[in-house]
Amino acid sequence: MKAGKDYKFWFCTGSQDLYGDECLAKVAEHSRIIVENLNKSGVLPYEVVWKPTLITNELIRRTFNEANGDETCAGVITWMHTFSPAKSWILGLQEYRKPLCHLHTQFNEELPYDSIDMDFMNENQSAHGDREYGHIVSRMGIERKIIVGHWSFPAVQERLAEWMRTAIGVIESSHIRVCRFGDNMNNVAVTEGDKVEAQIKFGWEIDHYCVNDLVEYVDAVSKADTDALVEEYYSQYKIIDEGRDLDEFKKHVAVQAQQEIGMEKFLVDNNYHAIVTHFGMLGGLKQLPGLSIQRLMEKGYGFGAEGDWKVAAMVRMMKLMTAGKKDAKGTSMMEDYTYNLVPGKEGILQAHMLEVCPSVAEGEIGIKVCPLSMGNREDPARLVFTSKTGPAVATSLIDLGNRFRLIINAVDCKKVEKPMPKLPVGTAFWTPQPDLATGAEAWILAGGAHHTAFSYDLTVDQMIDWAAAMGIESVVIDKDTRIRDFKNELRWNAAAYR
Ligand code: MN
To answer: Are residues 340 and 347 in contact, defined by beta-carbon separation less than 8 angstroms?
Structure first.
């Protein structure tokens, strides 16, 4: 999938007119070279656009407002090549509303020991000018990403690339529209939340429809279109019939194919990017959407089960952040289900009733038709698989009544020791950092949910930066987490985020 637009990032270099035209020509030349090389690096997911050097209050203000107004601009990267008196940045920064990066770099990598003189120092003083600029951004309390190091370093370019993806999450968040079929599950606490506050904080539009509005779309799908999609399923996935009647099996699969086409048409016609279902509120749907939802998630739609709109929006947002990423390993809704508590092999088996995104799958993906232990519908068809290994992030956005908190857990995904032939769902298995006992204790202390928005393709830092840009609290559970410190962090956050 692709992000919503062909986004670009503006590169704005700061200076002033004190140094004369010759120096300013050099400043412009240097920043052009940096931009060209950043674009040539192949590391950045989005293009960097060079902007004329910012030397006056008026120009800075105008440029930031142009960035606000340009729909393809997803953020501004700033860098002070020379000294740029920071009062001239106040009005522009005050009016700027998009993600901001401060690339604290310098044109030359090494001190030119033999030739350095005062002219060189005056022309190349980002160590000096970037501090003046940084001061005013901090004084104004503006959220920004600071990346330090020579612009040619792969590590610096990687961080810039990661920040760009976070910025896409920030920009795209305010375009996310979630379609709820039914309310969230009765009596469940953690899937509740303040939808008005979510729109204020994240820009999410969270609407509600009767599930039978969807049924009309599903019923309207032609048999020919349904059959064609069933054939696609049969060519793409392994049919695991487990002795069921083959015609009956295929009819069950066809119900999901019809749902996939009908649901997608509903989402496209009504401009939604994320969907929420509830197994207890299926109206005229013959099966709980399983395979159909799994396929839609793979196409880039967000999903939350049992009415969980926070997870649906987060999955959509994280899919946009990782859109087009090379060798992406996948992003999905997950649910903490069952533990393996054997010492040295501890982990949490992740699954859901049906709805795990096949983007996380490794190896063969099969289709099974099995009874659902809940609800009163036909046995739904679903995709079954196991997931990739390696580091990933599991996140939970919760509503604490007076604020949102994003809980971010670094997890290590593994293969389970043995196959689980009787388990008819897509699964993942991970050990939370720093270890199962500490990770699970911290998660529960923080109030983390059983549903998570999960990705192999995002880092803890990207999720922290996203939360900061949204103005909400985030807490991290990773290799450095100690329960005593974590409890204090929660206490201090309660004071800081009143
Ligand atoms: Mn659930």
So the answer is: yes
